[in-house]
Each structure stands twice: as structure tokens, then as C-alpha cells.
Amino acid sequence: MKKLVFFLFLFVILMSHSLWSTSDLYLANQEFMTTDRAITLWGHKPFSAEEFMKGTLAVRRSMAASLIENKGLIGKSPKQVKEALGDFTGYFWSKDIPAYFLNDGSKEKNHETWQLVFLPGSKGDIGEVRIHKNCCS
């Protein structure tokens, strides 16, 4: 009986480590843009939630670096992000992770599509905001 309990305990530990490693590996294999590059490509307009919600892709991408630097949405729930910025327009790993397109890759020379993603922290709230390459090169 003790061996069975030990093996079950070991199995649970290994499975939880495996799940954690899977998400770490997933993120490690994704391409993200630095805020410096975003500023160079798209500018550095001060972030305004109201303007972001109503704005075009050009308006949204011009505020991306400022939104990240501002950190005003860190610690908020995905629902609060949606209330502040509007319906999600992008997709990152799960429909529950807020993501907003910043450009239309089909209209770009290199066909790259970038989106702002709000990555969850350990409690399910927003832990980090990054610019993610959604598609193509």
C-alpha cells in the first residue's frame, strides 16, 4: 500500500512539473517584440484606454509600448481588461487570454501579424503584457 501511495504521489509531482514545463516551453518558442523595436516601428503615443478601445490598428500599435511601460493593467482580471479595452481581437493559446491585434499582416511586406497579449500571472490575473508575433514571416 505504501508503494502505491508513493508512486501515485510521484506521478502527481511529475505530471504537474510536466504541465508547467509545457507552458514554459510554449512561451520559450514564441517570438516577442521588444518595446524599443515597437517604438522604432510604430511610435510611442501615450496610452489611453478610451482611445485604444475606439482606435484603429494604427492607433493601437502606436500606444503598445506605452501600455506595456505603464503597467496599469498588471494585476487586473481578463474581464477588467476587456471592460477597459473592448472585445479581444487576437488569440493567444486560449480564448481566455486577452489579445489585441496591432496590425494586419496580410497588408505588410513581410506578412507578420503582431498582437498585444496579456499573459496570466500565478493567480489568473494579468502578470505581464507583451507584443507577440501571431503569424507568419
What features would you describe in this structure?
The chain has five helices and four strands, in the order H-E-H-H-H-H-E-E-E. With 137 residues, the chain is of the alpha+beta class. A hairpin with a 5-residue loop joins strand 3 and strand 4. The radius of gyration is 18 Å and the shape is globular.
How many strand elements? 4
Estimate the strand proportion: 15-25%
Strand order of the largest sheet: 1-4-3-2
Rg over alpha carbons = 18 Å
The percent of residues in helical segments reads: 40-55%
| Secondary structure category | alpha+beta
Query: What's the overall average pLDDT, rounded?
Result: 83
N-to-C span: 55 Å
Shape: globular
Question: Sheet with the most strands?
Answer: 4 strands, antiparallel
The helix tally amounts to 5
Low-confidence stretches: 10-22
Could you spell the SSE succession in H and E letters? HEHHHHEEE
Give a short overview.
The chain is of the alpha+beta class. The chain has helices at residues 2-28, 35-42, 49-54, 57-70, 78-85, and strands at residues 32-33, 99-101, 113-120, 126-135.
Question: Characteristics of this structure?
Answer:
137 residues, alpha+beta, four-stranded antiparallel β-sheet, 5 helices, globular
Write the layout of secondary structure elements.
Elements: H1 2-28, E1 32-33, H2 35-42, H3 49-54, H4 57-70, H5 78-85, E2 99-101, E3 113-120, E4 126-135
Helix pairs in contact: 2-4
